[in-house]
Amino acid sequence: MVRPSWVEINLDAIAHNVRLLADIAAPARLCAVVKADAYGHGDVPVAEAALEAGAPLLAVALVEEAIRLREAGIEAPILLLSEPPQQSAGEVITWNLIPTVYTTGFVKALSEAAHQPLPVHLKVDTGMHRVGAAVADAKDLVAAIVADRHLYLEGVWTHFAVAEEDVAFTRKQLDTFNSFVQMLHDVGVEVPIRHAANTAATLLYPEARLDLVRVGIGIYGQRPAPGMVPDLDLRPAMRVVSHVSLVRRLPAGTRPSYGRRKALPVEALVATVPVGYADGLPRALGAHGGDVLIRGKRHPLAGTVTMDQVMVDVGDDPVEVGDEVVLLGSQGSEEVTADQWAEHLDTISYEIVCQIGPRLPRRYLP
Ligand SMILES: *Cc1c(COP(=O)(O)O)cnc(C)c1O
């Protein structure tokens, strides 16, 4: 017997979201961003579902993430979203990855490792200030790539810092990017694939869709910001499920769990559920209004989340050992969303789903 706790990943929902977002983005093509184990959903199954639903391209953050996909037999093009260390240039070639470049050192390392024309995508920093070449330096990099017989400038791209919240800044970034592309055109350099939009920009700025959109959070069925585009039929793909392991009746005033932070307002049944912060259930949820679903009803956490277990105040409901508990996702007509957790914890849904940990096995539906 194993612990009755797991993460359910609905691959139909992933496929649905990919098709929905690809339709919105068309004629721009959709690149499915599956970095960080597909935002905690499982990289290989999600990548396969996204490709099957029509995504022509995948993107990851790390060479090692790309290698996992290749080792699973995935042959689709894979874009690396940042430069890896220069020593990884050989692996980029070996594993047939599409590197993003923005330093002369990495361009040189790739050129030395490549034996035949290698497509590269140049990243320009237009305001995110994380990685990318400054516009002033990007021109020289383009010249170096174009002059190199081992490299082929297939793409040029940028990344938005505030696509979900600041129209003026996002427009300015896009203008900077478009001017850069125009400048390349003026000197005779045509780049076939221009891309800029993440999920938020794909939805909010049609003019930012260009040739390709890089969509992450949307394919998992989450909105980039709470309440954004509320009538869009995005379907959350992740459900965190467990089962009641113990039920006891405790008197009013009892303070369950570490720190004895919260007293039961009235006598109640308290259910113990075998999922804890070591599984990615944030410890602070206990003190900040976390609810779970049992028998289709919301119930508050009764005290601090512990490493392996959490307690739930189910009041007078006839909850029994073995009942299904939904920590994240829907049960009947009720739903606990990643946005709700994020609001309690002052973060974003991205962090919530990414930190659902590997100790919980993933079960893929259908
Ligand atoms: C993660 C990432 C994306 C996807 O962003 P979402 O907001 O999840 O759609 C796109 N581009 C880059 C460079 C990223 O790092």
CATH topology of the largest domain: TIM Barrel
**Rg, alpha carbons:** 24 Å
Q: Estimate the helix proportion, in percent.
A: 25-40%
Q: Architecture of the largest domain, according to CATH?
A: Alpha-Beta Barrel
How would you name the oligomeric state of the polypeptide chains in this document? single chain
Q: Which band does the percent of strand residues land in? A: 15-25%
- The rounded distance between the terminal residues' Cα atoms is 23 Å
**Number of DSSP helices?**
11
Largest sheet: 9 strands, parallel
Global outline = elongated
- Quote the average pLDDT: 97
Query: What is the level 1 CATH name of the largest domain?
Result: Alpha Beta
The SSE string, one letter per element, is EHEHHEHEHEHEEHEHEHEEEEEEEEEHHE
Task: Kindly give the count of domains.
Answer: 2
Query: How many beta strands in the DSSP annotation?
Result: 19
Ligands, deduplicated: pyridoxal-5'-phosphate
What is the CATH superfamily classification of the largest domain?
Alanine racemase
Low-confidence stretches: none
Give a written overview of the molecule:
By secondary structure, the protein is an alpha/beta fold. The chain contains eleven helices and 19 strands. The model has no long low-confidence stretch (mean pLDDT 97). A hairpin with a 2-residue loop joins strand 14 and strand 15 (297-300). It has two domains: 11-220, TIM Barrel, CATH 3.20.20; 238-365, Lyase, Ornithine Decarboxylase, Chain A, domain 1. The protein binds pyridoxal-5'-phosphate. The site of pyridoxal-5'-phosphate has 13 residues, from helix 9 and strand 10. Pyridoxal-5'-phosphate (PLP) is lined by residues 33, 35, 81, 159, 198-200, 214-218, 224.
